[in-house]
Automatic annotation (TrEMBL), chain A:
Residues 1-48 are annotated as: Disordered. Keywords: Endoplasmic reticulum, Membrane, Transmembrane, Transmembrane helix. This is Dolichyl-diphosphooligosaccharide--protein glycosyltransferase subunit OST2. Pfam families: DAD. Residues 8-34 have a biased composition (Low complexity). It comes from Orbilia ellipsospora. It is a multi-pass membrane protein. One of its GO terms (biological process) is protein N-linked glycosylation. It is found in: Endoplasmic reticulum membrane. The chain crosses the membrane at residues 78-101, 145-164. Component of the oligosaccharyltransferase (OST) complex. Its main location: endoplasmic reticulum.
UniProtKB/TrEMBL annotation, chain B:
The keyword Transferase applies. Keywords: Endoplasmic reticulum, Membrane, Signal, Transferase, Transmembrane, Transmembrane helix. Subunit of the oligosaccharyl transferase (OST) complex that catalyzes the initial transfer of a defined glycan (Glc(3)Man(9)GlcNAc(2) in eukaryotes) from the lipid carrier dolichol-pyrophosphate to an asparagine residue within an Asn-X-Ser/Thr consensus motif in nascent polypeptide chains, the first step in protein N-glycosylation. N-glycosylation occurs cotranslationally and the complex associates with the Sec61 complex at the channel-forming translocon complex that mediates protein translocation across the endoplasmic reticulum (ER). This is Dolichyl-diphosphooligosaccharide--protein glycosyltransferase subunit WBP1. Component of the oligosaccharyltransferase (OST) complex. Residues 29-284 form the OST48 N-terminal domain. Residues 311-453 form the OST48 middle domain. One of its GO terms (biological process) is protein N-linked glycosylation via asparagine. InterPro entries: DDOST_48_kDa_subunit, OST48_MD, OST48_N. Pathway: Protein modification; protein glycosylation. The lineage of its organism: Eukaryota, Fungi, Dikarya, Ascomycota, Pezizomycotina. It is a single-pass type I membrane protein. GO terms for molecular function: transferase activity.
Length: 165, 465
């Protein structure tokens, strides 16, 4: 994967690589010990700007956020917004179940699993349409992935509406 | 004035006619097993019975024409066994014949001899044992040294008793005489009864009375010579078999004899024996204490009162059950009222009672109004359990004929289209809203996605080129 990544010129030059010895920027936050390791990783750090090896967690988070804003395609951002929305709706429903009881249990199941199922479908859409994963899903075009997503979502909605009776 | 007089005459005539028509529910044919020498003692009793419409047939136990059955049918409806000097009553009056008579619905009144010298025929003591009544052997006599009927009587063997009293939840059919404070005279050995629920004491001895062996201990009675004492010494006991035939034992025949229908020396008042004799014979021969179920109606909330006594009901739905009861009293049925401290109950049973609830009397049933019966009604919700249920009214009380009414019905579960829809349950609204929020959000997402797509592609396409 790393090799492929290196060959192809993707919009995102840096991808978190678990196999890579050199720490990429997101990793620095989690592993300050590995930071002192040889840091001449010019290609990875160049695009982010200047993040010191022992910078504060807030700075690291800011850097991640800035990088995310800067380098994530708009479609992926849109997906992320939708997923956050689904998590919020699901959390509200679960909270209601905890507080008010699960009396029509099928209603709870239908409502909650609608958000969960939609979240899963959206996550797979995100994986399949992320330009960074293009090599992984060479046979699946974004259009095809979106069509699958729409088809799956319609089936999910149909089931949930039926299940709630 | 003349009109009034005419009317009272008419009323008297009507009451006379009804009096002569008054009749036992079992039937009027009455056999009196009575020897000629004792006949003279019971003239009033016999004439009172005849006045109430009983057709008496006086036969000696030795009579060859005496048979309780003909072509396997009861010849008599009621039997009175008077005390006799005979040791056996002969082949036609075995205890099995008496039991067969009772098993066929006939009633029996047994009068035991009052004097200690009197003998009890074998078949009578056998019959008593079989219905859980125990008779003392020959020579016993009940005495009370503290409440003397007649101060000059040396043996103190005549007891003076109050009329029978029962707990408030039991109907009293044995104090219907005109004078409720009248005293009863009793002379005889008494009885003891076993624990069978079919046997009920009608009259028990006063606290200080006891029945002892007069031959063994004429001077003083000790433990071995006492048969029973106090409330355990029963003077009159009534047995009602499971199908409501009645067998009554009177522990001393003199109680119903002419010589007791007199003034009591102590109080100088008329004894209550004659009215008591009427009450005892009336109860034994089913002129009183007989219940009749006139109507049973049950209907469910599903179809309403338009479908009566339907076979199928639904879980968790209201069901109304009504039963109309009337009670026989000498010559007519009248509405039966349950004693205030008692309760008529309905059971809704599948193996176990799921409900046992009181049936309350309603002045007017929603369905039918009835003149001669009381309608007891209750409404309840069928349990959340489907299966074969049974409505049971099981009313078995002392001195009342048994009411045991059963009706099995099906209780079905909800059909699939009878459940409340989700929007009918307010608790599910947040989750319904959740689904539609997801759907609407998804539609919005798809719309924005389609709108934003070309931009991204264009960019990447440009870059590639």
């Amino acid at each position: 994967m790393a090799r492929k990544n290196a060959n192809s010129s993707t919009p995102r030059p840096t991808t978190p690589e678990p196999s890579s010895v050199r720490p990429t920027t997101p990793n620095t936050e989690a592993a300050p010990k590995s930071a002192p390791a040889p840091a001449p990783s010019a290609p990875s750090s160049s695009s982010i700007g200047n993040l010191k090896a022992n910078s504060s967690p807030i700075d690291v988070a800011n850097a991640i956020w800035v990088k995310y804003i800067k380098e994530t395609p708009q479609r992926t951002k849109l997906i992320d917004v939708f997923m956050v929305f689904l998590v919020a709706v699901g959390a509200v429903q679960f909270l209601y179940c905890v507080l008010a009881g699960n009396y029509p249990f099928n209603a709870f199941l239908a409502g909650f699993s609608a958000t969960v199922g939609q979240f899963v479908l959206t996550a797979s859409l995100r994986i399949q349409t992320n330009p960074a994963n293009k090599t992984e899903f060479s046979s699946v075009s974004p259009e095809r992935a979106f069509a699958d997503f729409v088809f799956g979502s319609l089936i999910l909605h149909f089931f949930c509406v039926n299940f709630i009776n | 004035m003349t009109r009034l007089r005419l009317r009272s005459l008419f009323v008297a005539l009507v009451s006379l006619v009804s009096l002569s028509q008054s009749i036992s529910l079992t039937g009027p044919r009455t056999l009196l097993i009575l020897e000629d020498d004792t006949k003279g003692q019971f003239l009033t009793l016999i004439s009172d019975l005849e006045a109430r419409g009983f057709k008496t047939d006086i036969l000696s136990a030795k009579s060859e024409s005496l048979s309780l059955f003909k072509h396997e049918e009861r010849v008599y409806d009621n039997i009175i066994v008077f005390p006799t000097k005979l040791k056996g009553l002969g082949p036609n009056l075995q205890s099995s014949s008496f039991l067969k008579h009772a098993a066929n619905g006939g009633n029996i009144l047994v009068l035991l001899p009052s004097s200690p010298e009197g003998t009890i025929p074998t078949s009578i003591s056998e019959l008593a044992t079989q219905v859980d009544v125990f008779l003392p052997p020959k020579g016993f006599s009940a005495v009370s040294h503290f409440d003397l009927a007649d101060p000059i009587e040396p043996e103190h063997s005549t007891l003076v008793l109050d009329l029978p009293k029962f707990p408030s939840d039991t109907k009293n059919y044995f104090n219907t005489g005109e004078n409720p404070s009248a005293k009863l005279l009793f002379q005889g050995p008494g009885l003891a009864i076993g624990g069978s629920p079919l046997v009920q004491p009608i009259l028990t001895a006063p606290r200080f009375a006891y029945s002892y062996d007069t031959k063994e201990a004429s001077a003083n009675a000790d433990d071995e010579n006492v048969f029973a004492a106090g409330k355990q010494l029963v003077l009159v006991a009534g047995v009602q078999t499971r199908h409501n035939a009645r067998i009554t034992f009177v522990g001393g025949a003199d109680m119903l004899a002419d010589k007791s229908f007199t003034k009591i020396a102590k109080t100088n008042e008329m004894s209550g024996n004659r009215a008591f004799a009427k009450d005892v014979t009336a109860w034994t021969f089913k002129e009183t204490g007989v219940l009749r179920v006139d109507m049973i109606e049950h209907w469910g909330q599903e179809f309403g009162p338009s479908v009566i006594n339907g076979d199928i009901y639904r879980v968790k739905h209201d069901v109304t059950y009504s039963i109309a009861l009337s009670e026989y009293s000498y010559d007519h049925f009248h509405p039966f009222t349950v004693p205030e401290t008692d309760s008529l109950q309905l059971e809704f049973t599948m193996l176990d009672p799921y409900y046992r609830i009181p049936l309350l009397s309603s002045s007017s049933s929603p369905l039918t109004a009835r003149k001669n019966s009381t309608i007891y009604t209750t409404t309840f919700k069928t349990p959340d359990q489907h299966g074969q249920f049974t409505f049971i009214v099981n009313y078995k009380r002392p001195f009342l004929s048994n009411v045991h009414e059963k009706k099995a019905v099906t209780v079905r579960h909800f059909a699939h289209n009878e459940w409340t829809r989700s929007w009918g349950i307010s608790g599910s609204w947040p989750w319904i809203a959740g689904i539609w929020v997801v759907v609407v959000g998804w539609v919005g997402f798809v719309a924005v996605w389609l709108w934003s797509k070309p931009v991204v592609e264009g960019k990447s396409g440009k870059k590639k080129q």
